[in-house]
Prior knowledge:
The chain is of the alpha/beta class. The chain has helices at 9-39, 107-114, 124-127, 134-162, 186-198, 226-235, 248-252, 268-280; strands spanning 45-55, 59-63, 68-74, 76-77, 89-98, 120-123, 174-175, 207-210, 213-214, 220-221, 240-244, 261-265. The protein has two domains: 1-39; 45-285, Ribosomal Protein S5, domain 2 (2-Layer Sandwich). Helices cover 39% and strands 20% of the residues. The strands form three sheets. Strands 1, 2, 3, 5, 6, 8, 11 and 12 form an eight-stranded mixed beta sheet that branches. Strands 4-7 form a two-stranded antiparallel sheet. A two-stranded antiparallel sheet has the order 9-10. The N and C termini lie far apart (85 Å).
Amino acid sequence: xxxxxxxxxxxxxxxxxxxxxxxxxxxxxxxxxxxxxxxxxxxxxxxxxxxxxxxxxxxxxxxxxxxxxxxxxxxxxxxxxxxxxxxxxxxxxxxxxxxxxxxxxxxxxxxxxxxxxxxxxxxxxxxxxxxxxxxxxxxxxxxxxxxxxxxxxxxxxxxxxxxxxxxxxxxxxxxxxxxxxxxxxxxxxxxxxxxxxxxxxxxxxxxxxxxxxxxxxxxxxxxxxxxxxxxxxxxxxxxxxxxxxxxxxxxxxxxxxxxxxxxxxxxxxxxxxxxxxxxxxxxxxxxxxxx
Length: 291
């Protein structure tokens, strides 16, 4: 048997260094493999990003910025004269959520999303209630959308009656929202119904986007994801953004895209007044969010 003295002599030291180097090399690859595996582990987070927009005054087309999806027909039909051709636009804005009640994003996506300016990393429970499921959430969002359409018709119908229109003015009105869910399109739906019924431009040719729940009495309520919605609005060309006054704190704490003017509204009548100011060029008087 050959006995080696690992504690003395240059040969012993060289063997020891090679031995340690070999072990370190294996450890490096082991750590790298573990880190790579951890990057694919699920987290408790979902990613919120700007979603598509929908101009309720034109064809039912979802605009994703880089691509469009045609839903077929008009966004709002069965109301007003078919010959009316709006010069501006009223865009519903949405958010996309990567993740679901039962599926969150892996760690590497959450890390990448953290460094993306248009992404928000949120705990799953902020978006999806505990105990929710994909089917329950989809059903709930669809129900909220139907409620938004119903409230928009009631609020718009009340306004139109005050302007001398018959109660049946919106009886045949249909709103094609495609896969969009939730309650936050109510305000823009109502404005679109009014413009189509009256047959005159409310925006004066401007590209306006907005969001807000709407009660049947015309009260505009708060919504979620407003920072992502502002990004989507500007991405697709909007210069003005109607935001619920109840969301002003979130607007002020968000990065408002350059070139987008945020207009704070509390009621349907207030939104109509704001559109009148935009149409006539009286933009200095538009109500803004303030601290």
